[in-house]
Amino acid sequence: MSVPAGAAWPRIRLLPPEVAARIAAGEVIERPASVVKELIENALDAGARTVEVAIEGGGCERIRVRDDGCGIPADQLADAFERHATSKLRDEHDLFAVRTLGFRGEALAAIVAAGDVELVTRPAADPVAALARYRDGRRERLGGAGAAAGTSIEVRDLFAALPARRRFLRAPQAEARAVAQVVQAYALARPDVSFRLSVDGRAALVTDGAGDARAAFAAVHGEARARALLAVDHERAGEDGRVRVQGLVGPPAEHQASRRALYLFANGRSVVSRPLTHAVEEAYHALLPAGRHPIGILQIEVPPDEIDVNVHPTKAEVRFRHERLVYAALATAVRETLRGAPAPGWTPAVPGDQQRWEAARVLLAPRPAGLPVARPSFGVSPEGSRPDVEGHASVAGDMAAGHGQEPLPLSERLPALRALGQVDATYLVAEAPDGLYLVDQHAAHERVLYERIAAARASGRPERQPLLAPVVVALPVAQALLVGQQEEALAAFGFELDAADGRAVIVRAVPAVLADRDPAAALLAYLDRFERETRLSGPDRAVASLACRAAVMAGDRLDLEQQRALLRALEATETPQTCPHGRPTLLHVSSEALARSFGRR
Ligand code: ADP
Ligand code: MG
User: pTM here?
Assistant: First the structure.
């Protein structure tokens, strides 16, 4: 407000409490993602082992967060909604040694000022649950209810009464993505807690809560990236404080265009901090291409009295008492990890399918140790374009072309396969120096395409095939929604889509792997596969769905040339023995087993 020259200065007045409450609420609750953040923090502070988040309409229509934590005793429920009401600080000294995520006692008060709220809670020892309902910022009901132990809170019509705030919101899909980013960050910060996020009734993220940070990263960013991460563990203590840095970071070959896949936590709190990010990027100096950023999860731990988390209303910024020590520890921790980068550990594609994998592995005869294996890039070379060299020469050739790869575990190697023919239009028969191979053509092609699509997607350069004439595709409701939600993923695969009237989309380009398909059918088939693909989550799910739809099917006749191309491409994959779902792609009968079976030995 500006005061015209000569006019009297307006009188200073105290704001009415409702107005003050709304201003304060606005600092804490900017968008649906901030509500979700506060509610997750409350759940974690309550010791939850499971946190379920469900949103509709980007969270503006409805947010529900349910936990199995300690609950709120019925007689304290009303207090929990008062401003500056908290069970987490007793006096000002505690403020300088915060051990919980919340402590300001503002979140619930702010949330009821921003939307309609219903909270149901029950400590495990109490026979009945307590319920509190708020509408238009006022309490409407306080009473008993029946519910499981823990707390469930539902927020509806966020910002309905705050049109100014509403105008700043982005499209529901964008708000939903911001919510997902928050849930992802906490799922990674706390792999010991099981998180579930559903967006408009669809499962978007599930972590198992088994405590493995790599598994949590896999749920968020896909198994391939998680597998490549290197472990960081570094501790530093001096007269000027103490700090420990732990976590996982990508090797220099793993990077991405945004900083969003580098998650930093300070004493378990997700933090966004330029200097901290900078310290990590310093460690990668000259190792990453320009404009690309590292990926990983880093947990910084300092004694609680050496960190000030009360810098910002949303607690996203922190200050360290010994800043230099922390930055130095972070940079050193990462640099040392990158220097000593060991070969990444290997885990099966789908942990649950361990047994099937074991079954596939026993069929593979051990191969001589110490022979490094190449990891060609799939984003650029179309399958079959590798030089047609038989025997181990092709492996050596790739090695020379590769860039300093580490030896991989024995089980990953595949010798050069010579195609002999097809059985049942489903299995390829091949010969290798070490015996006979039977290859499931669909599973094998799925594996090939999966890695190629994932690599192209990760590189930010999807292989796309523009259509000569754009095609209009009418979509059913659910699929139209799915297209809306997957805008980014679809573009990352090479789909170029524009919204048309109603629920139709205009397809201008398709991923190169679908180039020989009818574009409308290909899009529908992909969406359909994605919906039914419930065994995988996160990016893996989308990539596997596309790979499945683009792959040759059981029953497709392949000529010898096509068989050769497929085998060549399979040899070049990182994990040739399993399809993206962990099913075996091949069976191996060693020369020795053949000889034994025929009584020659
Ligand atoms: P703060 O988290 O800063 O203490 P909040 O407004 O977020 O403030 O919550 C107020 C109080 O309500 C908390 O201190 C806690 O005692 C209680 N509370 C809120 N959410 C939960 C929950 N999910 N489980 C158990 N107690 C909760
Ligand atoms: Mg809180």
Answer: 0.59
> Measured between alpha carbons, how far is 87 from 102 in angstroms, rounded to an integer?
9
> Of 3.40.190.10, 3.30.70.1070, 3.30.230.10, 1.10.3880.10, which CATH number belongs to 215-338?
3.30.230.10
Q: 73: CA distance to ligand 2 center in Å?
A: 16
**Closest to 53 in 3D by CA, of 193, 191, 198:** 198
Query: 584: Cβ–Cβ under 8 A, 6 or more apart, which residues?
Result: 356, 357, 359, 360, 363, 440, 443, 577, 578
Show the ligand 1 pocket: residues with CB < 6 angstroms: 38, 42-43, 46, 67, 69-72, 80, 85-88, 102-109, 151
- In this predicted model, what pLDDT tens digit does every residue of 500-556 receive, in sequence order? 766 678 999 999 888 877 888 888 888 888 877 777 887 888 889 999 988 888 888
Residue 103 CA: which ligand 1 atom is closest?
Answer: 3
CATH classification (class only), 373-601: alpha beta
Residue type (1 letter), 408: L
Helix, strand, or coil here: 390? coil
Length of the chain: 601
DSSP string computed for 214-245: HHHHHHHH-HHHHHH-EEEEEEEEETTEEEEE
Q: How far apart are CA 44 and CA 267, in angstroms?
A: 13
Alpha-carbon distance of 426 to 431, in angstroms, equals 17
Which H or E run contains 220?
A: helix 213-221
